[in-house]
Amino acid sequence: MATKPTILVVDDERELVDLYTSWMRDSYAVRTAYTGRGALEQLSDEVDVVLLDRHMPDLTGDEVLDELRRRGHDCWVIMVTAVDPGLDIIDLDVDDYVTKPVSRTTLTRLIENLRAKSRYGQHGRREVTALSNKKEALDDTLSIDDLEGTDRYRRLEADLQELGDSMGEEFAEGE
Questions:
Q1: What residues are paired with 77 via a beta bridge?
Q2: CB neighbours (10 Å) of residue 133?
Q3: Contact (Cβ atoms closer than 8 angstroms) between residue 97 and residue 77
Q4: Model's pTM, two decimal places?
Q5: Residue 160 pLDDT more than 80?
Q6: What are the φ/ψ torsions at residue 2 (nearest 5 degrees)?
Q7: d(C-alpha 88, C-alpha 78), whole Å
Q8: CA 79, CA 56: separation in Å to the nearest integer?
Q9: Contacts for 66 with CB less than 8 Å, ≥ 6 apart
Q10: Hey, which residues does 76 pair with through a beta bridge?
């Protein structure tokens, strides 16, 4: 029997952690944490996906994310938060960003989309996915006037284009 993928659910709102766990437990091995420090204690190489709240009282989701990456974990991270995305998410090393409330269908789709991409094994897959998801989150939340005049958004678009071009070249060379 194949081992279930492991999801780490991190949020200081216990009711949400319990809800997400009830949604995921049939398909995934679920670990839970109600604090940022608790998340870091639960983190291991077995964790495939982290659902991470951004605002928690002990360590913020941003701080947990920084420590997770500093430790070398390459798991997928979905920021699930009540905080609407701003241009600061461009610099966050997350793979997707969704605002609460989130439905079971949406959360499952986000997880499965990321897991499917990991099976492709393409160079740069995580980076392209993360940049694309950040751009989509910003496009859905902020007006085009707010975005187009910023260096950070232009850099995001250029980085996404460059990675897409380089992956296209790698694909063409492999044919």
A1: 50
A2: 21
A3: no
A4: 0.71
A5: no
A6: -70, 145
A7: 15
A8: 12
A9: 93
A10: 49
